[in-house]
Amino acid sequence: MSIKVEVKWGVHRPEEKFFTMPLVPGMMAKGLFISDLPRVLIVGESENFTFTAAFAALRRSINNIVTTTLEDLEPDWSEAVTAAIRWAKKNKRRGGSLNDTTSFSISEVRARYDNAFETPPAVGPTFISEVDARELHENPLASIRDHCGNIFFQCPYRVDANGDTAKLIVDFMSSAALVQNEGDKLYIGITTEGRYAHAYNLRELIQDTAPEENYEFEGADNTSIQKILDFGYKHTSRTGDIHFTILSHHVTLIFTKQASDSDSTTTSDSDSTTTSDSDSTTTSDSDSTTSTTSTTSTATVDDLIKKVESMTTNDGQPSATRNESN
């Protein structure tokens, strides 16, 4: 399974206009919405906090979530939960083309919010303001560092004198690479709506930046974010309300941190060079040492698509800056 995303707005040649990514439906939910409640760091949350509220409700718990904003804000969790439940109803009415086949009823949504939050919800997940997603490696807070095993940036967006969205994402990934370990996950929520998707420079991000930062691209999850929409996530924008425009055009890019070059194993001289007496082979000093360095290979996008298709069962499931985010 794969998804074709328009990455060059206004271009007519298909090979430039579109970029194809493997689909991994449900991968994010299977990794984060589980009873073990893995630790998660959410960066770039918006002022309505509906993304974090919906995320916590899906997990039935506010525990092991640290959510952050670039701005100096303070969440009102009662207001955030009320807004999320209201938007859950609106999203359900308008989200007829969503791909998720396991949508929740409003009564189920309310029940999970009751499980996750107090009544009324005066307390929410751990919140920290003024956290720059591009400078996570410079942040000294233990609560930030302790939750870097899974980092989530939903709908990053930036257009100003200091850079654009593509640069924001690259800077974010570069910073995350310095605080994540092998096997950790990086989640980037994007819209595939053509008018906005071109801003991400997806081809360069996936084929160039990710390997350079020792990330393997797993694929695009097109269903898990829709569960969050089911629970009332409302996208906010500084350029007008585009929530319903992009409602059914969300995916989550998933990257896994690989071992860095410094973690690679170098074979000792004694193991790397063998001289055969029977062949009367003499090796000069300058050629006598051969180091074998184990490096992580990055699969091509086509290889990943084939891998995902081979793992697919009959039911189709696989066997900072905030700046305009959320």
Give a concise summary.
Residues 310-326 have a biased composition (Polar residues). The protein has 326 residues and is an alpha/beta fold.
SS strand fraction = 15-25%
What would you call the shape?
globular
Q: How many structurally independent domains?
A: 1
End-to-end gap: 27 Å
Strand order of the largest sheet: 5-4-3-6-9-11-10
Order of helices and strands: EHEHEHEHHEHEEEHEHHEHHEHH
Number of strand segments: 11
How helical, in percent, are the residues?
25-40%
Topology-level CATH name: Rossmann fold
The level-1 CATH class:
Alpha Beta
SS content category: alpha/beta
Region (Disordered): 259-326
Biased composition (Low complexity): 261-298
Biased composition (Polar residues): 310-326
What does this structure look like?
With 326 residues, this protein is of the alpha/beta class. The longest helix is centred in the N-terminal third of the chain and has 18 residues, at 77-94. It starts with a strand and ends in a 16-residue tail after the last helix. The strands form three sheets. Strands 5-4-3-6-9-11-10 form a seven-stranded mixed sheet, with helices on both faces. A two-stranded antiparallel sheet has the order 1-2. Residues 265-298 and 311-323 have low confidence and may be disordered. Helices cover 33% and strands 16% of the residues. It has a single domain (24-261), classed as Rossmann fold (3-Layer(aba) Sandwich), CATH 3.40.50.150. Helix 3 crosses helix 5 (106-116) and helix 4 runs antiparallel to helix 5 (106-116). Residues 310-326 have a biased composition (Polar residues). Residues 259-326 are annotated as: Disordered. Residues 261-298 have a biased composition (Low complexity).
